[in-house]
Amino acid sequence: MLLTSAVDEVGDLATTVNGLAREDNELAAVQQYLPRRRSGSRRRIPMTRPNYFNNVHKAVRAALFETSLRVARTDFGELEEASATARNVIELMDFLDEHAGHEQRFVFPELASFAPLLAAELEADHARMDELQTEIRRFAHAVHGPSKEDREEKGRRLARALSLLIADQLRHLDREETEANAVACAHRTDAELAEIQARIHASMPPDHQARLIRRVIPALNTAEQAALLSRSRASMPPAAFSAMLGLAREALGTDRWTALARRLGLEVVAA
Ligand SMILES: [Fe+2]
User: Would you state the pLDDT for residue 43?
Assistant: First the structure.
């Protein structure tokens, strides 16, 4: 027994060391995509460049974690409870599909022009996660059945598949935020990258834009919310910006909305 636990500990340590080595390798992997200066050295990416994945990925993580907690707390033997959670899971899958679709249509083709291997690996992640997401959808549709035992079994399988998806998603989101963002910043200006974001936004129907705002704003801290809304105020017609403020207020609740309104210099009106 003692030997087994010692072996397990050595195994855990090896996993940690391999993980750290992998991080170094990943940082080294980014270097190959960075343009060279005339001197031959690689250009460094200033820390002041924005992370273009930050806001939407915070919303993705929030949705994954919140849904995972909800699934864990659901008694799938109770039909109504199981159905409500299943709807929530389907909405999460729709959000993940939409987000992946935007990256595949607008981000990866651009990335492939200067980092083809990285773009191909990120696409392969999407394909693998898509299979898991299809399986999760199948379980979510199956938790409405007439048999209590069957619903409970499908609920357990749904929870496991969702946990495995979260494990895959976390590693993938991190690669996009570190490796993909670094190489994108090395090869494109902020104006060019903002243009890609604007094209993604313009491709979305208004109800999808509103749904995304409802997901993104509460997932950010107050400084990030204020930066996002300030940029929107500068670029949107007043009526559209006012509608966006309404969505933010609704999504944040009184305390967080008050903090944001103060940061934006808006007059805080009692609800
Ligand atoms: Fe992605």
Answer: 54
CA of 52 to the centre of ligand 1 (A): 12
What is the per-residue pLDDT across 56-74, written as a single tens digit (0 to 9) for each?
Answer: 999 999 999 999 999 999 9
Each domain of the chain, given as residue ranges in start order, spans 22-203, 205-271
Residue 103 Cα to ligand 1 midpoint, Å, equals 6
d(C-alpha 80, C-alpha 148), whole Å = 12
Backbone angles phi, psi at 42, to 5 degrees: -75, 145
Greatest alpha-carbon span in the chain: 71
**DSSP count for the chain of H helices, then E strands:** 11, 0
At the second CATH level, the architecture of 22-203 is: Up-down Bundle (1.20)
Question: What is the rounded distance in angstroms from the CA atom of residue 68 to the CA atom of residue 170?
Answer: 13
Rounded Cα distance between 236 and 162, Å, is: 37
DSSP string, 146-168: S-HHHHHHHHHHHHHHHHHHHHH
How far, in Å, from the CA of 100 to the mean position of ligand 1?
A: 5
Residue 96 alpha carbon to ligand 1 centre in Å = 9
- Read off the pLDDT of residues 194-217 as tens digits, 9 standing for 90 and up: 999 999 999 999 899 899 999 999
